[in-house]
Amino acid sequence: MTITPCANGPLLVRGDMEILDEDGNPVPRTRRTVALCRCGVSTIKPYCDGTHKAIDFRTE
């Protein structure tokens, strides 16, 4: 598995992994590569929906 932070955007996670919600339940995924939200505003958390662009999310 690899995790790549995108500048001013999501974390791209590639490979075999399990994503769990806050209660420890598996979150369904259909792709081997997923984009995880870092801005906290996505409407499909934990996945990115592109909202970071609309709110001008910036990383250091």
TrEMBL record:
Record keywords, A-Z: 2Fe-2S, Iron, Iron-sulfur, Metal-binding
GO molecular function terms attached to this record: 2 iron, 2 sulfur cluster binding; metal ion binding
Domain Iron-binding zinc finger CDGSH type: 14-58
Superkingdom, natural source: Bacteria
Gene Ontology cellular component list: cytoplasm
Keyword presence, Membrane: no
Keyword Membrane part of the UniProt annotation: no
Name the record gives this protein: CDGSH-type Zn-finger protein
